[in-house]
Specification:
This protein is mainly alpha-helical and 176 residues long. The protein is built from 8 helices and no strands. α3 runs antiparallel to α5 (63-100) and α4 (49-56) packs antiparallel against α5 (63-100).
């Protein structure tokens, strides 16, 4: 968000927007800079999950173990996707709020609140709901419980996809 906050405060943003390169180039170049900056930290964060996923792709015999095993791999893949999409959402929201917020601190607070705060609250809500289901007299089959553990991850993944799309759209339309 720093780039857009500083060029907006100095008045250089209006000058940049009138150049022949235009809004699309400005936004895409900022996105490329952020990708180059964040790609290796995100890859390093995901490195411990990759061997687990690859090791889990080996065959497991028997229907109950096979289904449980596949649920675990699915959960790890969803976790991997959510980390990648979460970092992407942070970047796009940072760009959008940087172009919109009055201060750098405001852009950071809004970005982190939306990209990390809301998914964390959703995960907490789902955990409480799952604990209630487990404590209820209703007895779930262990495979159903395994399936319910990845529902929050899917919801968070869909939220990140929506958030990235909305931030990209809002940023380009805000700059027009």
């Amino acid at each position: 968000s720093r780039f857009f906050v500083s060029v907006r405060q100095t008045g250089e943003l209006e000058l940049l927007l009138t150049t022949p390169l235009g809004i699309e180039t400005l936004v895409s170049e900022q996105w490329n800079v952020l990708k180059r900056f964040f790609v290796w930290p995100v890859v390093v964060m995901q490195a411990p999950l990759l061997p687990q996923i690859l090791a889990g792709l080996g065959g497991v015999q028997g229907p109950p173990l096979f289904l449980w095993h596949n649920q675990t791999i699915l959960l790890k893949l969803l976790t991997l996707a959510n980390t990648l999409l979460g970092a992407t959402a942070l970047c796009w929201l940072g760009l959008w709020f940087g172009a919109q917020a009055r201060t750098q601190a405001g852009a950071i607070v809004w970005t982190v609140s939306l990209a990390k705060g809301l998914p964390s609250l959703l995960g907490l809500f789902c955990s409480v709901l799952m604990a209630g289901l487990l404590a209820s007299p209703l007895r779930l089959d262990p495979l159903w419980y395994a399936a319910l553990t990845w529902v929050p991850e899917v919801m968070i993944l869909l939220f990140y996809l929506w958030l990235i799309s909305a931030a990209r759209y809002r940023l380009t339309h805000h700059l027009e």
